[in-house]
């Protein structure tokens, strides 16, 4: 479940998102994800997923601070980002923040990352747009080193340190699970195979690109000596409309049963389009939770 569209649904009230997370936790939702933009520029027409569905006035709460509040309001649901712009976070700060969140939530954190698509935002964060992928790789490698042992050492082109103690370590024994967003291009396949447990494509669950990307990742896992069955894939459900052109939630959720045959392990459903106001959030989440339990 992606908790977004704060400005339209909750009139910009970020605290209302915490209540929505509490409802999702009780409804049996498996994972709550929050999106990330430190700032948004005017060139939303360059969004690679097609139409950018948010206004320039959308309230983008800082996701790790949002998850800290959500962690205290929930008890079982896993907490994630979709996606965090990892190139814009210093490795030490990101590693420390996520490990602290993992401890406070008793091991419920997943981190979904991406390189970012808007050049205005990336360059405003003092990162060269062309090097953001390499910077993210180094950041993730450094985080994994810091989560693995104390003291930790790491060296790369963009971040290096020796004999640092960065405590607390995450509760999860293998560190915090990393998911990577984007398409299954060669660079992303290499990145996921080395650093991640999961892939979050910008594709619908029925897309042929999704199936080919999952197949390529499983082959890459095998070549790297990893069990391809470990690969996790989260894709958005295909949205189904009724005869009048309105989104049909029940028909959309019926697609859950078809996901395993396409290699999808986790279904993503957002509030946009299905929910018109804050009063519809609870019934929507309860219907999604009930469908997830049946599938």
How would you describe this protein?
There is one protein chain. Strand 9, helix 9 and strand 10 form a beta-alpha-beta unit. 38% of the residues lie in helices and 13% in strands. It has one domain: Luciferase-like domain (TIM Barrel, Alpha-Beta Barrel). Strands 3-4-7-8-9-10 form a 6-stranded parallel sheet, with helices on one face. The chain is built from 10 helices and 10 strands. The protein has 295 residues and is of the alpha/beta class.
Shape: globular
Which homologous superfamily in CATH is the superfamily?
A: Luciferase-like domain
* Strand order, largest beta sheet: 3-4-7-8-9-10
What is the number of domains?
1
Poorly predicted ranges (pLDDT <50, ≥5 residues)?
none
Q: Name the beta content range.
A: 5-15%
The top-level CATH class is Alpha Beta
CATH topology: TIM Barrel
What brief labels describe this structure?
295 residues; alpha/beta; TIM Barrel; six-stranded parallel beta sheet; two-stranded parallel ribbon; 10 helices; 13% strand
How are the SSEs ordered, and which strands pair?
Blueprint: H1 6-10, H2 14-27, E1 31-34, H3 63-73, E2 78-81, E3 84-85, H4 91-104, E4 111-114, H5 119-124, H6 132-148, E5 152-155, E6 160-164, E7 178-181, H7 186-195, E8 198-200, H8 208-223, E9 232-236, H9 249-253, E10 266-268, H10 281-294
Helix pairs in contact: 2-3, 2-10, 3-4, 4-6, 7-8
């Amino acid at each position: 479940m992606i908790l977004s569209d704060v400005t339209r649904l909750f009139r910009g009230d970020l605290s209302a998102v915490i209540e929505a997370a509490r409802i999702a936790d009780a409804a049996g939702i498996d994972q709550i994800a929050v999106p990330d933009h430190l700032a948004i520029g005017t060139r939303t027409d360059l969004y690679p997923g097609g139409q950018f569905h948010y206004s320039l006035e959308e309230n983008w709460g800082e996701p790790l601070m949002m998850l800290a509040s959500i962690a205290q309001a929930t008890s079982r649901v896993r907490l994630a980002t979709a996606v965090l712009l990892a190139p814009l976070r210093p490795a030490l700060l990101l590693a420390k923040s996520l490990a602290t969140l993992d401890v406070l939530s008793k091991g419920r954190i997943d981190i979904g990352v991406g390189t970012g698509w808007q050049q205005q935002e990336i360059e405003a964060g003092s990162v060269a747009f062309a090097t953001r992928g390499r910077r993210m790789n180094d950041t993730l490698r450094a985080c994994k080193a810091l989560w693995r042992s104390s003291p930790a050492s790491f060296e790369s082109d963009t971040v290096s340190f020796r004999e640092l103690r960065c405590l607390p370590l995450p509760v999860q024994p293998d560190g915090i699970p990393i998911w990577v967003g984007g398409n299954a291009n060669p660079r992303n396949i290499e990145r996921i195979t080395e650093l991640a447990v999961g892939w979050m494509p910008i594709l619908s669950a029925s897309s042929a690109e999704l199936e080919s990307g999952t197949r390529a990742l499983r082959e890459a896992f095998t070549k790297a000596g990893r069990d391809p069955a470990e690969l996790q894939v989260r894709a958005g459900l295909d949205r189904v409309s009724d005869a009048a052109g309105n989104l049909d939630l029940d028909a959309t959720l019926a697609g859950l049963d078809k996901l395993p045959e396409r290699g999808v392990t986790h279904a993503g459903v957002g509030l946009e389009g299905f929910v018109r106001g804050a009063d519809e959030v609870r019934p929507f989440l309860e219907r999604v939770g009930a469908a997830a339990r049946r599938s």
